[in-house]
């Protein structure tokens, strides 16, 4: 059965949650990662990415895979998709300087850590969407390796918008326009700590992450 969601469902599902606990976990997981991302890439870029490609592309892929490959009709909701995107992008950057992470006596490839988080979440948290989380990881990898930088506006457009909105006056922490930030068009910096989990679902469906 083909799932044909209305347009608003492709962009608003991260704001819907199955309950207070689901919402609380996502807020705790997302806040430090999103704050770091905004400080590195700027408020305008953050708004463009998370209201556009970081939300709609995984949603469209989810609908296509569910409809034509899995033949399911499972709606999802929650903001943990964003958490896995940011987390995966961070591990892409970490992998450049630290290809492996040692756990006891095992060397685990750094790039596989987000996938381990997805599996752990699927095992420990019932009714989560494995597909939704995997799509979040895929988007994070794509951003981390710089394949999605074409979604960002050019420098002159950012400066014009920031000037018109007086962002430096309204948002003193915004650094997208007047200071160079490492990895602005791709990789996230590893300067601050943050952990995350993921989630997406419509009523009666599955949530993405804890």
Computed structural class:
mainly alpha
Order of helices and strands: HHHHEHEEHHHHE
CATH architecture: Up-down Bundle
CATH topology: Rhomboid-like fold
Computed Rg = 17 Å
Helix content bin = 40-55%
What's the structural domain tally? Answer: 1
SSE diagram, text form:
Blueprint: H1 9-12, H2 20-41, H3 43-51, H4 53-69, E1 76-77, H5 80-97, E2 100-103, E3 106-109, H6 113-124, H7 130-144, H8 155-165, H9 167-170, E4 206-207
Parallel strand pairs: 1-4
Antiparallel strand pairs: 2-3
Helix pairs in contact: 2-3, 2-5, 3-4, 4-7, 5-7, 6-7
Structural summary, described in words:
The chain is mainly α and 210 residues long. It has a single domain, classed as Rhomboid-like fold (Up-down Bundle). The chain has nine helices and four strands. The strands form two sheets. Strands 1-4 form a two-stranded parallel ribbon. The protein has a two-stranded antiparallel ribbon with strand order 2-3. α3 packs parallel to α4 and α5 packs across α7. About 14% of the residues have low confidence.
Supply database-style keywords.
mainly alpha; Rhomboid-like fold; two-stranded parallel sheet; two-stranded antiparallel ribbon; 9 helices
In short:
With 210 residues, the chain is mostly helical.
